[in-house]
UniProtKB/TrEMBL annotation:
UniProt KW Transmembrane keyword: no
Protein name (database record): ATP-grasp domain-containing protein
Pfam families: RimK (PF08443)
Native species: Geomonas diazotrophica
Domain ATP-grasp positions: 97-329
Amino acid sequence: MTIAIQPDDYGPGDASSPIWSRLLSEAGHQVRTVDVYRADILEQLEGCDAFMWRHVHAPHMRQVARRLLPVVERELGLTVYPDQQTCWHYDDKIAQSHLLKAAGIPIPRTWVWYDKGAALAWAAQACYPVVLKLWSGAGSTNVRLVSSASEAVHWIERLFGHGVETLDETPPVLRHRVKHALRALLALDEPHPWELHKDYVLFQEFLPGNDYDTRVTIIGNRAFGYRRHNRPGDFRASGSGNFSVEPGLITPEAVRLAFRVAEKLGTQSVALDLLLRDGAPVVGEISYTYVSWMVHSCPGHWDGELNWHPGQMWPEQAQIEDLLARLEERTP
């Protein structure tokens, strides 16, 4: 087989393509490195059996992935990772709220408004606090607790006015300096990852008493789980860096719900952020991709029957095993 791979490298211990390439080569397959940002990307894919690209939430990647991946999968007929069922809703909290609700998955109550008047009327009678989210953002960025109607009105006015790039209240001049400092530190050549958000507002039910969330990652018939503790003095856990991989902290209900979501949505890979409402798990957000070393830190995984399999595993190994199995199924 010939598998095309778009390189990725998002920091120390956070690159999938080198592991994919090594595992495929060891299995006797050919790896073709491609460049999705070139005009001849479709020609680069000629003669390939599969295509893999771990794209993240940066806008310059999103605009390529949402246009290219459906064509590669549906028109060229290649086996793709991630496929459309897995990634079309990636880093889109509005799409995810509609999708999960329609699929019958338990989620916090969510309100999305595209009309300013309707949003203001809702804010006047809402029960506070509520969580305000922008549709994109990772690691708890663009997520904020709103404690009163006046605060909700403030953000509604801004979002239906000039719009916002972030929910951070840092003064614009200082934020501008921070963005440029980050760009210089990371030596980024691509457009900055901030986008303008306007003409919508998304509020979500606040679930008190959650000092942590449970992250369960499903890859095929494998579930990896760990608990993420909140930042000090904060209600958010994502991006805190404080986590525990003790299997006993992960409830069977959380693992069952995660497998249910993966099966219902037909995903190749999905990481779920689970919170508790009245003692039962609900899905806050989902993502097809994640930091690999955190999954690898898990001492084992559960299968779909909730049997425990000890031993660490790189998520890329699971992804390659599943990809090769799908390719073998397609081979006459």
